[in-house]
Design goal:
The structure holds 2 protein chains of 2 kinds. By secondary structure, chain A is an alpha/beta fold. Helices cover 30% and strands 30% of the residues of chain A. Chain A has 7 helices and 15 strands. Classes of the chains: A alpha/beta, B alpha/beta. At the A-B interface, α4, α5, β9, β10 and β11 of A face α3, α4, β7, β9 and β10 of B. The complex binds flavin-adenine dinucleotide and adenosine monophosphate (AMP).
């Protein structure tokens, strides 16, 4: 086992799929008769869960050797975020030049690249913070015919075996499975990494390959966007009469 | 042609969120002129399965194989796809959860079915099939047209008003083909706080933030939650500091909850926290700072010290009994 084991870990190839999403504090509004997100003044970031996946991938590479490729399905405005991922420690990047509106379509694009390059580990975020679907990892896993697990809070690799801790309803479970795997990550799998000066310098010359999408079906399409109805005024209760709250919750809101 | 609803079980009983999914599926069945069939996997209490009839199901397919009792999204998706084919279902309903999303995703790839996760209302069916979903972590909605022949909807809590009737559903044995490849992972330790109420299922949640000042001060909050029969949650810094376990962390990067009542104690109301609670029906905020942003998202507010207010509230609840 020893020799094969070393050989396998030496060539460990990790793919990290990242989204390009409005910052968590961004104010969301729409334009063009509510058919498009109003991008004016919105700052974009790497999805926070994808950032955990990337951080763990970089740590695993440092520990085991191998390479980290970042992949994004989206348009050119994502390039600064992809460069940031390279600055954090990915070796190269692929951007599939397509609008990722449908989970099935996006997953099919990712699966196509993954099938060509044979990664040992495909790390994603537990969910994107624009769609909050939490489905692209499962779709890609099934399309590649390999297992997928999410949300993963802890991940260690030993040879070709991954040991992971996964959140389940009200707790967690430990699992071990053979590579290749697709995993949706969340904290505390790692801590977000901030690029250092050297990383930022080297990221400029790392390859970012832009490829056109393969033909694929779009099974769902957004028609119109809307905002939640504004909240009514908050009813204030003096602290000295706190028990009034309990009465109101029973008689007015009828929730207790 | 029936609408197929995948349900999650807890100790053999259908989870409350899944019963909501059954009620949702039954409404979709009415809209599309068909019936609602439930799919339940693993060891189950047959009377609990039959009880889905009270939420509108006419039939339950039950695959009772012991191997399916432990949650396994790979196998569940496989079996769901087999049930869809047997029933010739065009719409699949699953309630939103980590497991629900995983099963929906893998089934979507098997069936080439369009998937919409985070659905908040019944679909509009008139030639086309459109559903409303939550996006940008509760900050907006999107109306999505599903164009594929088979459609999978992953439905959020409170997407419809549930009315319970008195019907029962016929429970049938279902014998799907199990694939060895779905059972290859070896499951180690399972840590589950079984005595605690699960946050995603709870009707009431009492949640604490950094304003609670330290783990040793949680007792008044726990007492209040106990009096209300509520689950307990916390803000991110609280779990980062290990004052409370990670699985209580609510928000953008934690659990998203949608209880009938969310009570925030000493939480400022940062946008990332609000993202996890904006599906709640009513929000109560207790904070000593009248300028705390959380009050803007609240229905009821008390400006005051949590350590002064919480015992009074606990007493008021106990006095109701
Ligand atoms: C990418 C990203 C993701 C994040 N995800 C999450 C997330 O999922 N969930 C989350 O919660 N946060 C998240 N955060 C952090 C978030 O921005 C806030 O920092 C956090 O929610 C603040 O927690 P808090 O309200 O408990 O603490 P604080 O902001 O410190 O607020 C404490 C509050 O308690 C009040 N207080 C103090 N003493 C008392 C008293 N005795 N009685 C009554 N009130 C009192 C204060 O007035 C204050 O309003 C995220 C941040 C980032 C950048
Ligand atoms: N357009 C995309 N490009 C690359 N990765 C993506 C894309 N969309 C989703 N993903 C990955 O899939 C995960 C889950 O996304 P979602 O299913 O949209 O919630 C994300 O955290 C990403 O890791």
């Amino acid at each position: 086992m020893g020799f094969i084991h070393r050989l396998l870990t030496l060539i460990m190839k990790i793919l990290v799929c990242i989204t390009n999403v409005p910052d968590t504090t961004a104010k969301i509004t729409f334009t063009d008769n509510d058919t498009k997100l109003n991008k004016a003044g919105v700052q974009y970031i790497i999805g926070p869960y994808d950032d955990y996946a990337l951080a763990r991938a970089v740590e695993l590479k440092e520990q085991l050797g191998g390479s980290v490729t970042v992949l994004h399905v989206g348009e050119a405005d994502a390039d600064p975020q992809i460069r940031k991922a390279l600055a954090i420690g990915a070796d190269d990047a692929i951007r599939i030049n397509a609008d990722p509106v449908d989970s099935y379509f996006t997953a099919a694009q990712i699966a196509h690249v993954a099938a060509e390059n044979k990664y040992d580990l495909i790390l994603m975020g537990r969910e994107s913070i624009d769609f909050n679907s939490g489905v692209v990892h499962g779709l890609v896993g099934e399309m590649l015919g390999i297992p997928s697990y999410s949300p993963v809070m802890k991940l260690d690799i030993d040879g070709t075996t991954a040991t992971l801790a996964r959140e389940i309803d009200g707790g967690k479970e430990t699992l071990s499975a053979s590579l290749p795997l697709v995993l949706g990550c969340q904290e505390p799998i790692s801590e977000w990494k901030i690029p250092n000066m050297r990383g930022i310098m080297t990221a400029r010359t790392k390859p970012l390959n832009v490829v056109e999408p393969v033909s694929g079906e779009v099974l769902t399409s957004p028609e119109k966007y809307s905002l939640p109805a504004p909240k009514g005024a908050c009813k204030m209760i003096p602290a000295a009469e706190a028990e009034t709250l309990i009465k109101l919750l029973r008689t007015e809101a009828k929730v207790i | 042609m029936s609408v197929l609803i995948f349900v999650e079980l807890d100790n053999g009983a259908v989870k409350k969120t899944s019963l909501e999914a059954v009620a949702y599926g039954a409404e979709v069945a009415k809209l599309t002129g068909t019936t609602a069939t439930v799919l339940a996997l693993g060891k189950a209490d047959v009377s609990s399965l039959a009880q889905t009839g009270a939420f509108g199901a006419t039939k339950v397919l039950h695959a009772a194989d012991e191997k399916l009792t432990h949650e396994n999204s790979l196998a569940y998706a496989d079996i769901l796809a087999q049930a869809v084919q047997q029933e010739n279902s065009k719409v699949v309903i699953i309630s939103k959860s980590g497991l629900g999303d995983a099963v929906a995703a893998r089934a979507s790839a098997k069936l080439k079915a369009g998937i919409v996760s985070g659905v908040t209302e019944l679909p509009v069916v008139n030639g086309s099939f459109t559903v409303k979903r939550s996006i940008y972590t509760g900050k907006a909605f999107s109306n999505v047209e599903v164009k594929s022949d088979i459609k999978i909807l992953v439905v959020k809590k409170n997407a419809i008003e549930v009315v319970e009737s008195s019907g029962t559903a016929a429970v049938e044995n279902f014998g799907p083909t199990l694939r060895d490849s779905d059972f290859q992972a070896s499951v180690g330790a399972v840590e589950k706080a079984s005595s605690e109420l699960s946050l995603t299922e709870a009707d009431i949640i009492v949640s604490g933030g950094r304003g609670m000042k330290g783990p040793e001060n949680w007792q008044p909050l726990l007492d209040f939650a106990k009096a209300l029969g509520a689950a307990t949650g916390c803000s991110k810094p609280v779990s980062d500091l290990d004052w409370r376990p990670h699985h209580e962390h609510i928000g953008q990067t934690g659990i998203k909850v949608a209880p009938n009542l969310y009570i925030a104690c000493g939480i400022s109301g940062a946008i990332q926290h609000l993202a996890g609670v904006n599906g709640s029906k009513y929000i109560v905020v207790i904070n000593k700072d009248p300028e705390a942003p959380f009050f803007k998202a609240a229905d009821y507010g008390i400006v005051g010290d949590v350590f002064d207010v919480l015992p009074k509230l606990t007493k008021a609840v106990e006095d109701l009994k």
